[in-house]
Structures are given as C-alpha cells and as structure tokens.
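Hi,

I'm pasting everything inline rather than attaching a file, because the server keeps stripping attachments. The sequence lines come first, and each chain or strand is labelled.
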Amino acid sequence: MKEVITSSPFFGITISIIGYALGNALYKRTKKAICNPLLVAIAFVILVVLLFDIPVANYQNGGKLISMFLSPATVVLAITIYRERNTIRKNALAIIMGTLGGSIASIIYIWGLSRILSLDETMALSIIPKGITTPMALSVSKALGGMEGLTMLSVLVTGIFGNISAEMMIKLFRVKSAIPRGVAIGTSSHVVGTSKAMEIGEEEGSISGVSLILTGIITTILSLIIFS
Amino acid sequence: MSILNQIAIIFGISLLGEIAAYILPFTFPSQIIALIILFVLLMTGVLKIEHIKEKSDFLLKNMAFFFIPAGVGILDEVKEIWPVFWKLIFIMVSGNFVAFFFSALFCTLAMKLTGRRESR
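And the predicted assembly:
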C-alpha cells in the first residue's frame, strides 16, 4: 500500500506543494529570512520522507516532473532584464564592472579556500556557483559534474546569510550610494538577498535584481571556461 | 493569448536552447541560451510580454517551488557532506563577504571613472 501511494508521481508533487504552502505561510507570519519558503519546504519533505521511511527515488517520481520546470523558470528571467533595460543602460559600466569583479573574486576565493581546506574537488565544484540564482547554479553544477543537493544547500545558505547580513555589510564596507549597494547585494546573494535590497530602497532593489542575473550569466560562462 | 499557447512558446524556446546547446562544440547550459533567445525576441519586438504574460508570471512568482526536489536530493549526499559540513558552511558564509566587497569596490571604481569622464 505504502509503495503504491509513494511511488505515484502525484505523491511527490502533492507533498512538495504542501511544504511550499507551509513555508509561504510561515514566512508571511514571521518575515524572517531563515523561514525562507524554499528552505521550509525542503525541510518538510525531508521530514516526511525520513519519518515514514519513504525511498527518495519514490518521491523523485513526482520530483522529476517539478524539476522539469527549472529550464523554463530560468528562461523567463529574460523578462526581468527586458523590464529593467533602462536601468541597465543608465548604469551599464558600473553594473558590469561590479558583477564581473564580484564573480571573479568569488570563484577564485571558493576554489582557493577549498584547496587550502583540502576539500574534495567535486564538492568544490558544487559550491562554485553558490552566489547565483538557483536554476543557473544547478545547471553549472550539472555541467561540471557537481553534487546537486550540495549546490542547492550552498545557494540557500548564501542567499539567507546575504539577506540577514546585507545591512551589516553596507556599514562594514561603508558603501554609500544605491548603485554599488544594489550591485553588491545582487552579486553576492542572488534573489534572496535582492528581497532585502528591495526593503532597503527601490533603486537598490532593481539594480540588485539586474545584477543577480548578470552575475549568473558571467559566473556560468567563467566557471565553464575555467573548470570544464 | 491562451495559456496553452503561452506554455508552447516558453517550452518551445527552452527546446531551442537545448538544440543549440547540443550543436555547440563546447558545454554551455541550454537555459542560458534560451534566456538569451527570449531576450532577443523581446528586444526585436517579435515577441511581446503580453504574449507570455500569465505563464511567465506563474513561473517567476513560484520560482522557488521548482527547486524543492533538487534540494531534497541532498538526502543522497548526506554521507559525503556531513564530515566536512562546517568547512563547507565556513566557505559559503565567508564567500559572501568576498563577493560583496569586490563587487561594491569595482562598481564604485567604475562609477568614479564614468563620473570623471562626464565632468570633463
């Protein structure tokens, strides 16, 4: 009976939706970055799977169908760039230089520190794209032969920490104007950070939104050139 | 446009991206090729946002949902990750400071550069 229920694709899809709804409700109530809906949803599904001793492969029967939407979800980010094309045009050099500088520094730092701490190469490759938006990070990880789950973890930790620490970092590095603030938040902590940038200011928010996509594209191209 | 047509447009562009990725002589994620294709179609006016509005709003608004299965995939990797868990967390969190600092730095430098050029 359990096998019949859990191996149906509807099972995986339904518990994912329940977890996501729970996460959204919790986030709305608390407004805390740590209650990130995705994090809560993943934790919920893992809890259900472990508690009822359900094979992960059974869950993934439905999971695979959900993952299929990762590509289309990346593709529509083009609309965000299109909507913000005037913001980009006005600040093109500052945004490009900032995202490029941040991406290169991040790749060198992660790779270097992973070597110093003698981490396994596959793990290092999995966390190279930690600062970019999830669908792009997953595609980089896949292309480099990384571990998908670890990549997801690194993207979530980075986003949530970036969200919580954005105001502290602005003070720490004395970033005074809106453009570098937005660029730095978007480059270092993708969508989850960007939601904080939107709270800080409208200009910070839209610049951060554009920067996260550019950083994603730059990091993808660079890491594929360097590591594949 | 009907929701089915919108799905067909976005899935069709995703498929084009996959074909292009297959033809390219080097590895490159099909999603990003498809993103560039959609951007070009919008810029050239071949496609209008209204053509794909509901479907893309649905994808953009519920973006995070589609990553749940990938995140659950960590269950298969726990054995390898656990012994180095804190090292990994340290790299992730300290990496935020590096990315933040350098992007703010280069961005500010670029602004000073262009600012000077304008005032000349």
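Chain A touches chain B through 107 residues (CB under 8 Å).

If the labels don't parse on your end, tell me and I'll reformat.
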